[in-house]
Amino acid sequence: MSAAADYGNVDPERALKYAVQHIRDDRAQVIEGIIEPVTPTWDNEAAAESIRDQIRPRARELGCVTGSGNLDLPGSSNWYVPDIAVVPAARAKGATALLPEDTLLVVEVTSESNRDTDFVVKRRRYAEYHAPLYLLVDRQEQSVTLFAEPGRLGYTRVDGPHPFGAVIRLPEPFGIDLDTAELR
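User: That's the sequence. What structure does it adopt?
Assistant: Structure tokens below.
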């Protein structure tokens, strides 16, 4: 029988998040305590790029940057790397990670391996951590859904699902129409 290792007073959440930030030559996220590599496909990247290109001009007007930086969810065993996050440039400067509430918009593009995570787990957690807008691009169902107004039990406003090709209105502070035709 082997003896269990004694790590003293190590905070498991902090240790897990430290480890995921120090993975060499790759990016990873933590989903409900499980480390998962972030390895988007070119189809995933093309969908994200289409959206990024449409929102980038308005994000710049708002003094924001668009990227796929780390989002920490303190008090949980979650550390996300969204496909796109729009955040104020001042908050992003020098930050290792931000909170979902620091974002103006989070976008996730599903793949076969992560659809349920993006649709169920991340949707719930982004609402819990007050990401104001969550855009879910569901490549398997070829639809787009916008979740808004985070509440205790999840998002209280849902716009969609809309089929690829529809035009989706991103509310203020964006106030722009997002054309999803290129997502097909």
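The chain has one domain: 40-68+80-183.
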